[in-house]
Amino acid sequence: MGRRQNDSESSRFISLSFLLAGFISCVLVYTVLSVVLNSNTNSEGSNFEPLTLAEESNDGGCCRGIEKLELWGAAVKWGSDHKFNSSEECCQACKAMCTGIDGPCLCDTWVFCGNKKACGSKFGECWLKKQKDIFAPDRQEAGNHVIWTSGIIFGKGEGIVGLETEYGILRIKLFPDCAPHSVAYILELLTLRHCAGCQFHRAEGRGQLWDSEGNHMEKASFGPPFAIIQGTLEAQGTAFKKIPTEECPYIRRGSVAWVGSGPEFFISLADHQEWKKAYTVFGSVLPEDMQVAEKIARLPTKSDVWNNIKVSVLEKPVPLLIQRLDEEWGNLKTNVKSD
């Protein structure tokens, strides 16, 4: 995919050859990840930024929150009598009350004080709360003066948003415990009356490289085509703030992830372990809705070149609208697999 780098001089020693081959492979992998999802900076209307590789996560699971944010809500456990040593433990305590086994979540919000100096006697307090509307969590305050870290939890069948297109609705299960900043941005978009400028503009099917379940075919290349549909989630007239790198698992069929720090994003039509753990994944398309993504991937395209990589751009971009879906979807299945 990227331009292959070759040695101009042959090595006399086998060990040196192996070292050089390893170096070249690393360069190629980095080059591919840096350009596959980024447009040529000279292309009209392009404002894409280079990808930076995220470090692999070894925390064994997701339980993230947003620092310097205090969420309000009805308390189900008072922090003064409920203390932990870390925000992860506080988050897990909320999750334990949101299993879906005994009905609706009893806890969907956690608030933790983890800075010993700033918190003082409140250090370790873990407040567990319940929102009136989890799509619009009640913010008490935010800013550098705030001593709290807060997060939200979506139970089974909750936290589903829809990307509405003329070809159907893509229902997406959001991951606030893995990508809280990303989900907070999506929830902000839900408050807008429109999402003018939000659209899909690139579409590449699976070709003969991946099967219908997203598995890579033996001995096949890794693209092009790259088995994705790509677009932007930036509403015109609304200032966009770069999203920090969050949880970066392997890309699976149905993964919804940012390109760099957004607002460019993509939905994967296949498993992409060759991309390593390089993209923040903030949601997953429900399996039964992947047919909509496949339909968009089959629309007429024209060829373009982004950073020396051949890509397929939609002849007519597909506008999309983000909508909240309040109906609970029971024990829904997502495309998430354990790594």
UniProtKB/TrEMBL annotation:
PROSITE patterns tied to this protein? PROKAR_LIPOPROTEIN (PS51257)
Q: Which residues cross the membrane?
A: 12-33
The family database entries (SUPFAM superfamilies) matched by this protein are listed as: Cyclophilin-like (SSF50891)
Per its record, what are the GO molecular function terms?
peptidyl-prolyl cis-trans isomerase activity
Boundaries of every PPIase cyclophilin-type domain copy? 161-312
Q: Does the keyword Membrane apply?
A: yes
In terms of InterPro entries, this protein maps to: Cyclophilin-like_dom_sf (IPR029000), Cyclophilin-type_PPIase_dom (IPR002130)
Provide the alphabetized UniProt keywords.
Answer: Membrane, Transmembrane, Transmembrane helix
Q: Does Cell membrane appear among the keywords?
A: no
User: PANTHER family under this entry?
Assistant: EXPRESSED PROTEIN (PTHR46873:SF1)
Descriptive protein name: PPIase cyclophilin-type domain-containing protein
This chain's source organism reads: Salix dunnii
